[in-house]
Amino acid sequence: MTSTDTTGQDTPRYVRLSIELIAEITDEGALKAAALQQVAEDAYLDDEERAQSVDAIEVDPSGSLAHFIDPVALLGDVPGVELASATWESVKTDFDPEGDEWDEYAVEESAE
Fold it and tell me: Distance between CA 84 and CA 78 in Å, rounded?
């Protein structure tokens, strides 16, 4: 069976995509201001959600960044695909671009 074979024409096939991004915040004030503006202009947030969003932005810049993640935009123009579900979070992390644990191309050596 190849990836183009299906078990039935009307049977949806679900795929879980895992994406990890590391973003460097270079101007926390600009990010915070932009996130607050985005929350203020978001027509889909009710008052409670808006207040929670503002609180998250005030506490942590990673909360600001989360307001700019749009999974619909990632898949919006892909033909034959509909977004079924999406969750995401942004958290602070230690990052050392020279560290081995951050080398996405490194291949683990097998123990002999």
Answer: 13
